[in-house]
């Protein structure tokens, strides 16, 4: 469905039209055709609005389906994003644990190394003092036995070299020498342990760096997964809001369609009722006319039997005081059976030399001949000569709306009235031809008034 204007604006305009129409419809219940449009016209407008409203509803429904599809697609992605974010967080926690372990291992290795270094220092200083003690002992030997002999015996020349030999000699069995030996062994061990601990410290330091890199990567991954999850959640909430909005709009559209449908249905009923009443009225008129025709026929038959007729049956027709009403298929039928003596139109006044409108049609009926209602209606007035301004005894009948206009007929210069008020049916005798008011001889001046203005009766007969 294509729209030429923004949907909101066009909807508002349509809603206003609808509101105005429903007001007309309410007002129309009281006085049918005075100010409100004809129900047929109203129905045309309501049905057009209904078509528009159905179009809106169709559009909104389609948009809502699309919005739900998008929402469903987002919701399908959400669990994956959520579990990915959770997994990334778990991986980050694991990486953090591993990093913490690596840090602890490094710290321990560093502490052990420091401890070993300290021990090595202690042992080294012990060795130094022990060497001094041994040196003192060697000095004594040197003084007692003489340098030469001993030097020959061990093959050395200097006292320091001699002391070293002494220390290394297995034969030197005193306690100081053995303590020195132990210390030497211990130092060797400590040096070896120190090397090992240094290697371990280097290894744990490398491990720590690796784990730190891994932790950084895991943190990044977790942050990204969280952002993706958050984006999808925001999208879902937006789409949810949009769907809810469209759903509300759809409800409103549906309500409007229902309301317009109800208006249309109501107008259909009004139109059907009007048609039904018209049929009933037509039937009643037909029945009344047939009854009158029968009465008239019976009267003619009685007259024919009681008065010996000399010649043609036309004589009996002429003698009938109430000849049958003329029949017609037009909106109106002729109000008199008499011939027309003057038509509706402009007339030249022979004395005043002016043109005047002859606002009706004259029937040259004889004095006292019947005047018939041109069609069914309600007598608005039956007035005497003094209050009609030259029209004499006058009857005005309102026929309601015909062909979309309000239609009334008037019957003038009457000799007398047959009825003065109430509803009259088509062809009913309402009065008798006369010459009351501004008239020079018996005739019926018949006017048709369309929305109050005199028009040529020929257009309605
Ligand atoms: Zn006239």
Question: What report would you give on this structure?
Answer:
The chain is an alpha+beta fold and 461 residues long. It has 2 domains: 308 residues, no CATH class; 128 residues, Distorted Sandwich (Glucose Permease (Domain IIA)). Strands 1, 4, 6, 7, 8, 10, 12 and 13 form an 8-stranded antiparallel sheet that branches. A 3-stranded antiparallel sheet has the order 5-11-9, with no helix packed on it. Strands 2-3 form a two-stranded antiparallel sheet. Zinc ion (ZN) binds next to loops.
Helix content: 55-70%
How large is the radius of gyration? Answer: 65 Å
The succession of helices and strands, N to C, reads: HHHHHHEEEEEEEEEEEEE
> Biggest β-sheet: count, sense, barrel?
8 strands, antiparallel
Taken together, the total number of domains comes to: 2
- The assigned structural class equals alpha+beta
Report the sheet-strand fraction. Answer: 5-15%
Mean pLDDT: 80
Describe the structure concisely.
The protein is α+β, with helices and mostly antiparallel strands and 461 residues long. It is built from six helices and 13 strands.
What topology emerges from the helices and strands here?
Blueprint: H1 7-28, H2 39-145, H3 147-154, H4 159-168, H5 175-306, H6 314-319, E1 340-342, E2 345-348, E3 355-358, E4 361-363, E5 370-372, E6 377-383, E7 393-402, E8 405-414, E9 416-417, E10 422-424, E11 429-432, E12 444-450, E13 453-455
Antiparallel strand pairs: 1-4, 2-3, 4-12, 5-11, 6-7, 6-10, 7-8, 8-12, 9-11, 12-13
Helix pairs in contact: 1-2, 1-5, 2-4, 2-5
Bound molecules: zinc ion.
């Amino acid at each position: 469905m294509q729209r030429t204007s923004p949907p909101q604006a066009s909807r508002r305009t349509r809603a206003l039209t609808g509101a105005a129409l429903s007001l007309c419809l309410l007002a129309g219940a009281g006085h049918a055709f005075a100010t409100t449009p004809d129900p047929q016209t109203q129905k045309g407008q309501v049905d057009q609005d209904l078509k528009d409203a159905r179009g809106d509803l169709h559009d909104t429904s389609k948009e809502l389906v699309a919005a739900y599809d998008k929402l469903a697609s987002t919701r399908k992605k959400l669990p994956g994003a959520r579990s990915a974010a959770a997994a990334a967080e778990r991986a980050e926690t694991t990486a953090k644990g591993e990093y913490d372990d690596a840090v602890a291992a490094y710290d321990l290795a560093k502490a052990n190394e420091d401890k070993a270094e300290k021990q090595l220092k202690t042992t080294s200083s012990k060795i130094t003092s022990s060497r001094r003690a041994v040196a003192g002992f060697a000095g004594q030997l040197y003084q007692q036995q003489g340098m030469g002999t001993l030097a020959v015996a061990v093959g050395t020349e200097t006292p320091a070299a001699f002391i070293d030999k002494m220390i290394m000699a297995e034969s030197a069995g005193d306690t100081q020498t053995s303590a020195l030996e132990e210390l030497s062994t211990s130092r060797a061990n400590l040096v070896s342990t120190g090397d090992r601990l240094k290697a371990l410290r280097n290894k744990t330091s490398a491990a720590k760096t690796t784990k730190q890199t891994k932790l950084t990567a895991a943190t990044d991954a977790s942050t990204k997964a969280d952002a993706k999850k958050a984006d999808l959640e925001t999208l879902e909430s937006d789409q949810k809001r949009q769907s809810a909005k469209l759903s509300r709009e759809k409800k409103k559209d549906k309500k409007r369609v229902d309301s317009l449908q109800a208006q249309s249905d109501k107008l259909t009923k009004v139109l059907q009722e009007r048609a039904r009443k018209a049929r009933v009225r037509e039937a009643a008129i037909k029945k009344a006319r047939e009854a009158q025709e029968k009465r008239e026929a019976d009267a003619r038959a009685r007259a024919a039997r009681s008065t010996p007729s000399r010649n043609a049956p036309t004589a009996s027709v002429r003698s009938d005081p109430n000849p049958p009403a003329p029949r017609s298929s037009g909106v109106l039928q002729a109000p008199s059976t008499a011939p027309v003596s003057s038509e509706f139109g402009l007339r030249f006044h022979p004395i005043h030399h002016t043109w005047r409108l002859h606002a009706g049609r004259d029937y040259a009926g004889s004095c006292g001949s019947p005047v018939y209602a041109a069609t069914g209606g309600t007598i608005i007035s039956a007035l005497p000569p003094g209050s009609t301004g030259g029209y004499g005894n006058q009857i005005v009948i309102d026929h309601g709306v015909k062909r979309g206009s309000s239609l009334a007929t008037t019957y003038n210069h009457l000799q007398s009235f047959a009825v003065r008020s109430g509803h009259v049916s088509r062809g009913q005798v309402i009065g008798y031809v006369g010459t009351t008011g501004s008239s020079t001889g018996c005739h019926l001046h018949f006017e048709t008034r369309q929305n109050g203005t005199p028009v040529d009766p020929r257009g309605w007969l």
